[in-house]
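Supplementary Text 2. Reproducibility record for the structural model of the 394-residue chain.

All settings were left at their defaults, and a single model was retained for analysis rather than an ensemble. We include the record here because the model underlies the residue-level annotations in Supplementary Table 4.
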Amino acid sequence: MEDAPAGGTHALVVGVGRYPFLAGGEKEVPEHGGMGQLSSPPVSARAFADWLLREYAFAARPRASVALLLSEPGSDSYTNPRDGAIHTVPPATIENLVAAVKAWRVRAAGSAQNRLLFYFCGHGIAHGVDMALLAEDYNPADPNNPLDAALDFNGLRRGLRSSPAAEQLFFLDACRSTDAVLSDQDEHPYAGRVPLLYRRRPDDLPALRSTPYFATLAGERAFGRPEQVSLFTQALLRGLAGAGSTKSSGSWKVTTAQLAASIDDFMRRPVMAGTAALAQIPTANEVSDFEVHELAGDPRVPVYVSCLPPEDSVLADFSCRSRPAGGTVPADASPTLSRPCSEVDAEQEGDGEWYLELGPGDYHFEADLHDGRPRARDSFAWPPHLTVRLEAAP
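Retained model, structure tokens:
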């Protein structure tokens, strides 16, 4: 969608929700293995592309290009959130995906100061360290090779080792559960198409910093939400909004290590991830630490407020007031934010824990259980994922 000089970030964003050969598709085959149509990936990929085009900022590697592939029923357009331009988006077939990978690599070939960023949301299957990302036209009943319509993720990373771009980021919002198509193979498994041949990284290039983020552990499933951004992508976007940041050289910057920690914390919280907090554990086990994104202002700090004992949280009216540094909050000060117990969703996980986002600063937190026993605490909102526990005075 854009072209910029060398020294930029080149992104490839893929969202696959329409799978004609899987359950519910117009060409459904019996061998679908329980995999079917997905409504979350196109929404998630659009949300991530929106963030790249509207929010992403990093002076050393500004946004240089964003390519988007989407497979979804009834739409082939994307509206750029910055200028309103409408673009026709190719479907995420394997041929389009392979071509997009090759073009993406070429765009970033001009300088070691470039950054490659890859985002995929859709079906994935795995066996051990091998992972296949399934394109729209994946057909498990193909008698020759079903995985010819898949992308070999490890092969993709290996093929990019010789790219001059010294920083490479991968976000894989897909299942990594075992499938017979992979597990039935013997010594040299085929995990899909490999668009780029592996070549040794030239000695005159800077050391490669390559970091993959996975939505779930190897062998496990990832979860989307109907017609909504997936849990992993929601955690990713909140991390990029500031929860994964630290202050450096006078500004707030998201780093790869802080981002990994932030995603992990979000996904562990029942108040954020519901029952998936017990079933889906994200991982980024090859983190090479570098700065990713610079915030335009202060970060939004995730804060979790609850009572001690925790079961009292569903009975509490919570409030938060901004507090002058080193001072006290006037008794008649209006709440900065509040949550009455009547707003607690009866089906919400987390024992009524209150999630809110604040700018860094001093705050006064209260819980009113209407029992005459005040529960209050002053706290500074930082670092991210601050936990505030309110206990009744003796």
